[in-house]
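So, is this right?
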Amino acid sequence: MNLHIIALFKFNENYLMEAVELFQNLVKETRKEEGCLQYDLIEDKDNKGTFFLIELWESVDHHNRHNGQDHLLDFRKDASRIMESGVEVYKGFKIY
C-alpha cells in the first residue's frame, strides 16, 4: 500500500536561500531512491519561509529505508540550525 506524507518546515527568513539549496539536494537525491513515487517541494504562497514536502512512497518499507539515507541525515543536520521550529509530519494511506 502506498504511503502518503506531507512534511511542513518553517525556516527563518534570513536563511531562505540556504534552505532552498538544502532542499534542492535532498529532492534530487531522494527522487533517485527505489520506491519513491513522488517527492515535491512546495513553498507556501502566503507564508514566507514555509515549505511542504509532498511525498508518495511505494510502501512503508521504502520510506523506512529513506530515513537512513545519508542525504536525508545531512539535510536534517544542516536544516535544524536554520529552522524556526520543528518539522510537522503527517503520514497516511489513501482511502478514496
Notes: The first strand starts at residue 3 and ends at 10. The two ends are 13 Å apart (CA to CA).
